[in-house]
Amino acid sequence: MSKNKSNKIGVVYSTNPDFEFQLDEDEIPETLAPEKQNLRIQLDKKARAGKQVTLITGFVGTEEDLEILAKKLKNLCGCGGSAKDGEILIQGDVRQKVLAWLIQQGYRAKSS
Fold it and tell me: I need a surface site. Which of 19, 24, 64, 105 has the fewest CB within 10 A?
């Protein structure tokens, strides 16, 4: 019996002698063009000990492109932040600066 429980997908038995189970591989989403991105910019301070962060959500694309966009925004604002799971966090309340830059770059962005 296999010790790796993550390989147990639910196939118990097959009567087909040529059966080969194929895993559903996660497709890497292609990065949409800036004019097709629908980004939302908001101020967030939940679970951050009262500190404010600018949260950019709605990015559709690869993690590498998300990191590149986050780095450009952090350099623009002169502050720190992070990017993961399709969200960009920029430290501080810089919503207007981020919104103006994203619109200038051709992104569809909305501040809430």
Answer: 24
